[in-house]
Amino acid sequence: MLLLNELFCLRPGRLINFFDKEGEGALSFGFSTLPDLASFCEGEGYGIKFSEDLDVLATPFMAGGYKVSNRFCVHPMEGSDALADGTPSALTFERYRRFARGGSGLIWFEAVSVMPEGRASPHQLMINHENIQDFSKIIEMIKREATDANGTAPTVIMQLTHSGRFSKPFGTPQPIIAYHKPVIDQRHSVNPDLPIVTDTYLESLPERFAKTALLAKEAGFDGVDVKCCHRYLLSELLSAFERPGKYGGSFENRTRLFFECIDAVRVAVGVDFIIGTRLNGFDALPGGFGCDKDDFMKPELSETLRLVNLLKAHGVDIFNITTGSPYYNSFVNRPNDVEKNEPPLSGVARMFDVVGEIQQALQNVPVVGTGFSYLREFIPFAAAGEILAGKCTSVGLGRMSFAYPDYPADILQNRFPSAKKLCITCGKCAGLLRAGGPAYCAVFDKHNN
């Protein structure tokens, strides 16, 4: 293990002011040593934990009946590069080859749509009986490449989704909404006369989630995630306070479809398969789930904690916690130096605190944390600190996995890459996705540029 003074002698300072000649909106993290960062966080009242002892990052943990080899996780970053029928393309294979060789013990495979009309783009993945062999091949490749590079195969969880109001199956918006809320609808020009999705349609979804989960198991995945975040359909229903009928109003009604999907998946896949969920801790939107009634940017987690404990009772094996929505407030779930809505480190601290409350409520059920990529070269110290403080079990890296997929392997081998190689949180990868093209790191990925 390198000592701190050795570490920062090897890597002096941050590369700042990447793009802007005038300094307006310049990308500058601004901390050259861990003591500087830790002191600043303490002075600002940010509860981010740091540790110089990184050994915990190499320790395994259990998710359901599966042993995950280390504490790093590749977040489900969509590539939007599938073929028209949802089959993984050559670009998809190459992306996951890099992730596999990158050393993470857990790969949270990107969103795979359970319904054609619920795809977020014409290039979102979708598994079926016709292309299941292609998904089997990508799993075989991931396991092989990871073992060749790092001596162990990762645990791989497929994320199952219905995009709801963000559906674009043919490249233009085709929203399927749970309810109307003008302040939300106006952001994406949702027609106020658009009918809300019917209870009958929603009743059909548990079977679709279950069938897709079974296909994932047959393809060789280790588990699935019933996605309930970022205001996609299941997530939006959690805040359907004014929706009439069996899926709106009370807590029991708003969570009903989520539990129906979880239960249907478990019946389909049996007990020897991981069921997880990527879940919004809070929405950070007016009238949102988990939000304080007087200040929607402030988490109020009473319903969130009630929900996660019920999900635990329903057999959910692992949680991946996020917040906000990239469509409305991307700075909440991806703190960055580009948007100027709040100090980014305050967003990191809020994310870590939300994850920490959920982890403490769930006790021994693993929780994957989010928001680490903003910390660049200080990720390992925050990762170890948060884990040792009992605030998460695993460390999710999304943007960093695009920018520098080998980051986990380097850290686990006591190699600390130059800050100049790391994600600068510019958001260009997400911008490519929103534009409908393949997503990759526009700064560092020469393969796609």
Q: In brief, what are we looking at here?
A:
The protein contains 17 helices and ten strands.
List keywords for this structure.
8-stranded parallel β-barrel, disordered N terminus, alpha/beta, 10 strands, 449 residues, TIM Barrel, two-stranded antiparallel sheet
Folded structure, characterized:
By secondary structure, this protein is of the alpha/beta class. It has a single domain (4-10, 36-434), classed as TIM Barrel. It is built from 17 helices and 10 strands. The chain has helices spanning 4-10, 34-44, 90-101, 132-150, 182-185, 199-203, 205-219, 233-237, 251-254, 256-269, 302-313, 330-333, 344-362, 379-388, 399-403, 407-412, 428-434, and strands spanning 61-63, 66-68, 72-74, 106-113, 155-161, 223-226, 274-280, 318-322, 367-369, 394-397. Strands 3-4-5-6-7-8-9-10 form an 8-stranded parallel beta barrel. A two-stranded antiparallel sheet has the order 1-2. Strand 7, helix 11 (302-313) and strand 8 form a beta-alpha-beta unit. Helix 7 packs parallel to helix 10. The radius of gyration is 21 Å and the shape is globular.
